[in-house]
Amino acid sequence: MRRRVALLRSGPPLPLAVLSLALLHAHGASAQPAGGLDGPLTLKRTPQLTETLPPAERSQLPSLITGDRLSGRQDLETVVEGHATLRRGEVAITADRLEYYQPDDRARARGNVRVNQAGNVYEGPELELKLETFEGFFNNVRYSFLATGGHGEAQRIDFVDSNVSVARSATYTTCRREDYPGWMPAWLLSAATLTTDTEENVGVATDARLSFMGISTPPIPSVSFPLSNERKSGLLPPTIGVDNTNGIEISQPYYWNIAPNRDATFTPTLMSKRGLNLGSEFRYLEKEYSGSVRMDLMGSDRLVGQRYNETRAAQLQQLANGEIQASDLSFGAPPSTKRWGIWANHHQDFNAKALGLDSLAANININRVSDNDYWRDFTRTPTLAQRQLSNDASLNWSKGDWNGGIRALRYQTLQYSLSPIVPSYDRMPQITANYNKYDWHGFDVSLNLDYTRFRVNTILAGQPGFDINQQSQPDGDRALAIATISRPFITPSSFVIPKLQLNTASYNYFLPQSDVPRLTVNGTQYVNGVPYNPNSLYFFPTSSNRTVPTFSLDSGLIFERDANYFGRAFRQTLEPRAYYVYTPFRNQSMLPNYDSAANDFSFATIYTENAFSGNDRISDTNTLTLGVTSRLIDPDTGVEAARFGVAQRLRFSDQRVTLPGGTPVTDRASDLLLGAQINWTPKWSLDTVVQYNPDTRKSERSAITARYNPGPYRNLSAAFRYQAPTTPLATDGNKSFDVGWQWPLNDLWGDKGKDLGPGKGQGGGRWYAVGRLNYSLQDKKLTDGVLGFEYDGCCWIGRVVLQRITTGTVTANTRIMFQLEFVGFSSIGSSPMQTLRTNIQRYQPLRQPTEGPSRFTNYD
């Protein structure tokens, strides 16, 4: 019998509410009763298929009905038999028999019913639905979802209305269905009822159980979850971890979706060795401002009392043994056991045009903790193991070639008696203005203005962080101006850049009376009219100025030739460079030093004018730096396959300007810098830098890093670093070896896996080893380490990772993290993902969020 085709348009829609699980939600499917065409059907060209149909457009789409036999009575019923199909937009319904009863607005499908809704498939023997009220049922449903590959079954789905449906005896899993008797998924979620509300994007499961490898959780009376990728208030999966500081650690986060642009997370954490920590984080995002605030509070930390008791017992034992005197006891009163931390950042954009500016923005950054030991007792905070916590607020503007800002910066320095640090100066405030003009009649011109008021807290001698030079100049103001003009002469094969710079600064600061000239009258010494007292910390105000000009000439040539090495064609370059700097000597020994330090000796600093960073010391310089670089470039792609370089600084006169306590530099030739970067293929890379001392014929510093990355989830890296001590008796040198890896263990027995694409792993049943070890060859101990394994079970991933973090010269924090991830659903345990990403170069997660598949990839 010839198949008939009918095109129907207009009329009420046909609903189809369907089951959804976490991260998915149901949509309505619709069809239309018979009616005549208003006109001929016209096909239109489109550059691409529409992924999501707007509701207004969906209601205007025609319905296409096909079948072997079409019969019915006008205004009563319509029946389609044999290969019956109803298609409308993104929804297609097929069955052995389709019936529509117009008087009660009821549709019925019987026999091999299949519904494809935007790639999501639902199958069952019987579907009955009222069109207008969206009421009905679907018996013995099997369903699968395109986005996650998840699937399951339900004994029955009841459609309450167009948004709400209730599935009974429902299951869900993302494990791929295997075709053999007795197959059971590795994990399975089952629920007595599963209610979905597509308007609220919420699903509620009652009497829910999660089974894994045949082991089921106790029944959960009720659990809710989002039906889409949109955020939803509720409990997040708990995390469980173990470490030597906290003991067993259990966290139960609660997420509050306040608004589309605001949310908050509350995380109580119970530590078996320490007590309860309450964490909270609030985030907000507006058109003109954004930011976040995190606060952690621990009302009573047992670790503080334990540490105090240990210190007290040790000192009392030393006192009993006669090793110390009673005056040497330092444990004092018990410290507070209340611990807290706050971390906040805020960015604000203002209406700059109203003020005649191009941009105007403010930033606030706050990092504060309760005590000095916070950094080593809480290692998973936003500041991690930092010991100088910056707290600053700034207002920045720009207009044309000008920009500037005002800033207030204050540090909280966390001291540690076994490893004290000298705190940085606070800037209260710092005001800057900068002008940059390029190619002004061939010249580049810049002007940098800076006024800073420096402050530092008083630290008494013998206390951690005390520095005699800093405490001798605790406060001061500095006004700074740097004017620069240069004239670049650049051609494709050469460049010459003469530059003239003028650096001037004015200081108002305080000097201790010991540094001020004294006047003796009648046998009594006076300082500024005050009798001199060598035991007094009295400071006298003073001021100083300095102006330092600098001339530099940077020049270089670029030669190219075609070359062939190891069977590969290259474009080889030879790039000699000469950089001359002259800065006359200006005595700066009496000036305070707020922000200057010696530059690290490297390829990045050897071609600079000043031997110091910051602006308080301008080195007198009469040097010529000579260097040459050669590169091998792929002529087809432009990719640099190799780079080799060498540079040395020649000094024509001594450098007499030094940092406080430093000595003049008298060497006529600096150490020799040699470096190489080789990226011969995308799989291999080698990077090495050597600082060679020609006088001692030894390396002062060297670093060699190699990486092997032959394919996805295969990465090996190794690095050797050596830093010679500053003096033969100094202990500030370093010699360490660092190795990291991510590698499939299945490669060892020939199982290479499959390339399933980024973020999808390489197939189930595969083990991966991950880790990084940093070993000090000088101290002969492991400083930091990460060691773990991952198992990809296709629909689930197991991870176990051990991490060691050094938190002091003799202390370390060790923790173990277990995680079980149910792909496409949820995870339990303590996630090690941030640890792996931070420590292992080029680490690739076995699963990553990817763009959802098109509905046309599963189109009927």
UniProtKB/TrEMBL annotation:
One GO cellular component term noted in the UniProt record for this chain: transporter complex
Function summary: Together with LptE, is involved in the assembly of lipopolysaccharide (LPS) at the surface of the outer membrane.
Family in the record: Belongs to the LptD family.
Domain (LptD C-terminal): residue spans on this chain: 337-749
Keyword annotations from UniProtKB, A to Z: Cell outer membrane, Membrane, Signal
Subcellular location as annotated: Cell outer membrane
Signal sequence bounds: 1-31
Record's keyword annotation contains Lyase: no
Main localisation: membrane
Protein name: LPS-assembly protein LptD
Gene3D superfamilies in the record: Lipopolysaccharide (LPS) transport protein A like domain
UniProt-listed GO biological process terms: Gram-negative-bacterium-type cell outer membrane assembly; lipopolysaccharide transport
Record note on quaternary structure: Component of the lipopolysaccharide transport and assembly complex. Interacts with LptE and LptA.
